[in-house]
Amino acid sequence: MAKSTAARWGGQRARALWDEVTGEYDLGAHEIALLSEICECLENLDALNETIRSEGETVPSQGYSAAPKVHPALQEARQQRIALARLVSALRLPEGDEESRPQARAGVRGFYAMGGAR
Predict the structure, then answer these.
(1) 71-104 as b/e: b if 16+ CB within 10 A
(2) CB–CB of 116/77 below 8 Å?
(3) What's the CA gap between 86 and 91, in Å, rounded?
(4) Alpha-carbon Rg of the chain, whole angstroms?
(5) Residue 76 CA to chain centroid, in angstroms?
(6) Hey, which of 38, 87, 105, 118 has its CA 20 to 30 A from 20?
(7) Residue 48: partners with Cβ closer than 8 Å, 6 or more residues away
(8) What is the tens place of the pLDDT at every residue in 6-60?
């Protein structure tokens, strides 16, 4: 299953990550699904970064204000980075020598209510 999924990653970063992780670890189905989402985020980020490089970080504003606005691709790239960080955290691959430091089982942070805890 892992090798057939690798064919869909055209980007260099996504394919390199896929090959490295699937070559080093024996992943379960749920971990392969997470790794696929991570690679999808990397592909999205690469495309968004290319758009930002070619079109710039701002777009002309419509309406009364002449001030330029932040490019929507820049905002989406930020969201993709947040999703990527959460997915990588959820995959919980060991860092370095697995025997010297056990994996922490930290949950993904959720949303906070406005106005603090009540």
Answers:
(1) bebbebbeebeebbeebbeebeeeeeeeeeeeee
(2) no
(3) 9
(4) 19
(5) 11
(6) 105
(7) 73, 74, 76, 77, 80
(8) 557 678 999 999 999 999 999 999 999 999 999 999 999 999 999 999 999 998 8
